[in-house]
């Protein structure tokens, strides 16, 4: 059976643009375009409201724009639902997310769904210099923008390894309503050699940059939210997904300027070296994370 990467490359070729595989968001002449879609049965957590689901779906699509060094400016979405109540709650969440990412909703489409609810969210952004996954160079510093661990903690809650009652309400809100790191977009556009957002897993995200750039990413630490101490180990957080934090390869000479401009929680966590793949403290790691395959 074909590996996931080869399948995705084939899908990109069939869509008429093989370059899609190496970008988080793409577009012509300073525009960035991204679209993401979700089925509720596969993406809505048991403790997530319909408005939370709409919010997170919107942030997820906007995050690809931000990772590419862009400022989100416009949103369009289409939703299928079993009731008007669901449509209204999803719309509320999309609207709240639009305000947090700084983009206006310009078009919405509603549909009746007989069974599973679904949503597609398209976001358009602008940038002075788009940044792709490829471009990381030996000597670059790997910067983690935003904390890790929310997706991994959600997984432990769903497996009953952690009780929802033992998790602070503020942490639950961070899981269901991830922070959009809009304030990092300018720094990425100005200084980054490569960038990608963490939707499918931190190791997968780093591997996307490493494989696209033909380099080795040598990770020295992972930085998880201090509020997750005692609920999650650093080893568990390294595969965390849907945190929508960012992995950025920054030239060492520009690191100080990048960190000053980043405007978010930004941490230098490793280096780009000659080689292939991803390692943590010298140990090679497989790109494990979330996948629908």
TrEMBL record:
Entry's Gene Ontology BP terms: thiamine biosynthetic process; thiamine diphosphate biosynthetic process
Binding site for ATP: 133, 199
Entry GO MF terms: ATP binding; magnesium ion binding; thiamine-phosphate kinase activity
Positions of Mg(2+) 3 binding: 64, 197
Record key words, sorted: ATP-binding, Kinase, Magnesium, Metal-binding, Nucleotide-binding, Thiamine biosynthesis, Transferase
EC number of this enzyme: 2.7.4.16
Binding site for Mg(2+) 2: 36, 64
Residues at which Mg(2+) 1 binds: 36, 109
Extra information: Reaction mechanism of ThiL seems to utilize a direct, inline transfer of the gamma-phosphate of ATP to TMP rather than a phosphorylated enzyme intermediate.
Known role: Catalyzes the ATP-dependent phosphorylation of thiamine-monophosphate (TMP) to form thiamine-pyrophosphate (TPP), the active form of vitamin B1.
Stated name of the protein: Thiamine-monophosphate kinase
Organism encoding this protein: Acidilobus saccharovorans (strain DSM 16705 / JCM 18335 / VKM B-2471 / 345-15)
The encoding gene: thiL
């Amino acid at each position: 059976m074909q590996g996931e990467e080869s399948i995705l490359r084939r899908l990109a070729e069939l869509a008429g643009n093989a370059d899609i595989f190496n970008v988080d968001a793409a577009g012509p002449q300073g525009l960035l375009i991204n679209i993401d879609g979700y089925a509720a049965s596969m993406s809505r957590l048991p403790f997530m409201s319909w408005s939370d689901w709409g919010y997170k779906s919107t942030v997820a699509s906007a995050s690809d724009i931000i990772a590419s060094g862009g400022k989100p400016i416009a949103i369009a979405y289409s939703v299928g639902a079993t009731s008007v109540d669901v449509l209204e709650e999803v719309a509320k969440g999309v609207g709240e997310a639009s305000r947090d990412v700084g983009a206006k909703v310009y078009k919405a489409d509603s549909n009746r769904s007989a069974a599973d609810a679904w949503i597609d969210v398209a976001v358009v952004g602008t940038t002075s210099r788009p940044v792709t996954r490829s471009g990381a160079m030996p000597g670059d510093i790997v910067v983690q923008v935003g904390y890790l661990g929310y997706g991994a903690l959600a997984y432990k809650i769903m497996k009953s390894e952690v009780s929802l009652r033992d998790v602070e309400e503020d942490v639950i809100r961070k899981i269901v309503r991830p922070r959009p790191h809009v304030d990092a977009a300018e720094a990425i556009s100005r200084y980054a050699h490569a960038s990608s957002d963490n939707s499918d897993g931190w190791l997968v995200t780093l591997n996307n940059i490493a494989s696209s750039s033909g380099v080795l990413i040598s990770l020295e630490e992972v930085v998880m939210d201090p509020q997750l101490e005692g609920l999650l180990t650093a080893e568990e957080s390294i595969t965390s997904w849907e945190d929508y934090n960012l992995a950025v390869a920054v030239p060492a000479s520009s690191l100080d300027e990048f960190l000053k401009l980043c405007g978010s929680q930004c941490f230098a966590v490793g280096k780009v070296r000659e080689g292939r793949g991803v390692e943590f403290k010298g140990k090679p790691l497989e790109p494990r994370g979330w996948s629908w395959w």
